[in-house]
Fold:
Amino acid sequence: MKPNFEAMSNKELRAYALTHRGDEDIEALRVLFSRRSSDSEATLFYLPKTQEEEQQQFELFKQIVSKIETKKDFHNLEEELQKERELEEKIRQKLEKEIEEELRAKIERELEDKIRQKLEEEIEEKLRQKIEKEKDQETQS
Amino acid sequence: MVGKLWSAHTDYSIHVTIEESTIYPTAQQAINCLIVCQWLSNCYKDIHLFRFDAKTGVVYILAGDNLEIIVPPNDPWRFL
Structure:
């Protein structure tokens, strides 16, 4: 089945054109071509008429090549940075969750201990009161 | 480099037949392609794809990391 070239990004179209060389596959390049910048924005290379002109054009060509490749390097770097940032965020969220769970368990344990202690104290107090009361009753009788 | 070539009169014998219409690459286009390929090679750039579109007459060249060049039949060539 023919892919929907119009829906593909330039990067995808390039990748497709590089791996598909059939007659119909040229459509990918046509779509890429249709998305070109206007001629007024582009550098146009006419047939050089003198050696000097050819040399000048070659210098310009080299400049454009290095500009395009720098742009790509920069783009790759940005992508890597973005991936790193996403990974960092994931790790941070995971850590936060782990710490929160740990803390919650600790707080629950401490709370339980405190309640138990308080209960024991109350029971002890009540027992003591009861014992004292019984002692008083004994001495009175 | 190509001084001799582009001043020479070139009768092109290469042609492509597609759906009853024949598209010929032009002499100017052929010379431009030669210049582009030579310059890419001078810059140590690999040419990954070279394609003549028999319907539109445009030549597409993909080279290096991200270089896209088009060589139309009669217009100047350019980066995409």
